[in-house]
Write a structure and sequence with these properties.
A hairpin with an 8-residue loop joins strand 3 and strand 4. This protein is 47% helix and 11% strand.
Length: 320
Amino acid sequence: MTKKNFVGDKKMKLPKTQTVVFANQKGGCGKTTGSVSVAAALARLGYTTTIVDIDPQCNATDSFGVNRDELAKQRKFSVADAYMSKVALSNIQITLPGRFNDNLTVVPGYRGLSSVQPRLEAEMHGQLANEQSSDLDADDLRNEQRARLRSAITSLQGKQDFVVIDTPPDLGFLLTTALIAADWYIIPVFPSGYDLRGLETLARTVEKVRERYNPTLRLLGVLIGNFDPRAKLDRDIQQMLGEKFGGERIFSIVNRSVKHREAPIYGLTIFEHQGGEQGSEQYEQVAREVIERIEKALNITSTMPAKAEEEEIVEEVANG
């Protein structure tokens, strides 16, 4: 891989780039839908945003209609190059011409990303054997490998308002690297007892990452998707999550909608597939809450556009 993906300069709204990871080891809980929709909503509101796809399924990449096979033919970088070759994300991200007023870029995924850890492990053992190093040196090398995504993101500091990371459904190497790289994490859940049981394991993983690598990592909130307000179970789980994390940590609910399942098939976000309807409006509200919570934590004046200005931005985005 040799070619750089050109991205034009855009002006930031926030004083510092904020990295937000969607984390849950369970599959089918709305990680990709949430990360794609929130990233798109942030861009619609005028914030420069990069979405990073580290899930080997590459669903976030596909959701934006990015043709990974074509990128490979053009010898463009993927996120795997950040891990294997220490390529900066600024050299990997690609634009989506004519969409979201060029506020949104994508760091495309790679189907073979699950092989990255064993390849790095083999590389490490080869290096240790050649240098006759100790186990302590092995620990140092593993820690450097876990920090490669964070290092790659530094190239976007001061250039993008938000870096949003979509993660795989497990607690392995890739999710760990995302938590090490992030300022914030969002827990996406669907109303299910299985989802709730897995949160304790996620909490232990986050705490270990805080202790060893990233003490400033903070929970931004819990995003409940696929919600059916008529179902007692859904309402009960909403209440339990509020009691566990605090009601102020629960984002606005995203209701169940077939449109969320349809949009990725066409390589579109919910805003392009169902603009102005409930599904897109709910995710736009979640994005506003993301901005408000981060601004409050940073103790800065609101950077969100006034309603009239916001409508003007959205209209400009819609018209290309």
